[in-house]
Amino acid sequence: MLSNSELILAIESSCDDTAAAVLRGRKVLSNCIANQTIHKAYGGVVPELASRAHQSKIIPVVHQALAQANIDKNDLTAIAYTQGPGLLGSLLVGSAFAKSFALSLELPLIPINHMQGHLLVHFIEEEGIQTPKFPFLGVTVSGGHTQLVLVKNHFEMEVLGTTLDDAIGEAFDKCGKRMGLDYPSGTQIDKLAKEGNPYKFQFPIPNMKGYDVSYSGVKTAFTNFIHKQSSKNKSFISDNLNDLCASLQYTLVQIILNKIEEVVKAYELNQIVIGGGVAANSELRNQLAARAESEQWQVFLPPLKYTTDNAAMIGIAAYFKLQNQEFGSLSDASLSRLNY
């Protein structure tokens, strides 16, 4: 077992955020993120533009992370990076830098599964973060993934259910675009929904077999509803924007909540651990808090700064890999799809 004095530089570049963090043991010394605003003009992430932006941002972000942590590169113990899943071009930028940096410093490499990082962020040693005990139900909710995972230990994870089409975050963004909101739309919908009636408009909740979820049907129903009503009243969206956002958000959250309830009962679990960008959604947080009270669930929600893609979550996953001396090699390939 290694000591908590080990220093890990972690790099995350799976999508459109260039991130670097430094961890000493399980404590985060720095966590720097460079966002890419260029994608707003296109209403979604453009992979080629994302990879080019990573190339220009990765060195400044790593430099910033080391400076904020007050760490010299020669003091580092290991270099961690996101191996997948994600956009292949973006992943390649992060892995190429990590491999080159590790090679130059003669340090071990630790490739990390991005999705495991989202759940293991709850093991960061920091005030305000409660650490769950195994086994627990992990729920990843983001723009690219919606999954229910049985987490048996730090790296033994079984996917029980997943989205068969759109992820919940993707559904937020696509429906938001239909209402004329900027990309990404999730935070805007959340804000507008606070002033709306979640029961004003009803949208279908699919009855999927097992623990899988589907969001394409809701997206299609919402789009058709907007088109039909707007053809009658051109100002329908602006006249009902708050109620539309509240009703849409309620439906999207209810879909995943229904499946969480099913898994909890079937597997007799009472710890629900949430990860991913949509973990910041206030409706999801409120609904989970209500279930925690009525159903005696223990709900673990990450601090807002760790909900979106960040390198601290890659670093904490790498910490446990380092404890087991599980290292990668220069020949490890970046993978756009990567199972648990």
In brief, what are we looking at here?
This protein is of the alpha/beta class and 340 residues long.
Model description:
- The chain has ten helices and ten strands.
- The chain has 340 residues and is an alpha/beta fold.
- The chain has two domains: 7-122 and 309-323, ATPase, nucleotide binding domain (Nucleotidyltransferase, domain 5, 2-Layer Sandwich), CATH 3.30.420.40; 130-301, ATPase, nucleotide binding domain (Nucleotidyltransferase, domain 5).
- Helix 4 runs parallel beside helix 6.
What brief labels describe this structure?
Nucleotidyltransferase, domain 5; alpha/beta; 10 helices; 5-stranded mixed sheet; globular; about 350 residues
Question: Strands, helices and their partners?
Answer:
Elements: E1 7-12, E2 18-24, E3 27-34, H1 47-69, E4 78-84, H2 88-105, E5 109-113, H3 114-120, E6 136-141, E7 146-151, E8 157-162, H4 168-178, H5 186-193, H6 216-232, H7 236-239, H8 241-267, E9 271-275, H9 282-294, E10 298-300, H10 312-323
Parallel strand pairs: 1-4, 4-5, 6-9, 9-10
Antiparallel strand pairs: 1-2, 2-3, 6-7, 7-8
Helix pairs in contact: 1-2, 3-10, 4-6, 4-8, 5-8, 8-9
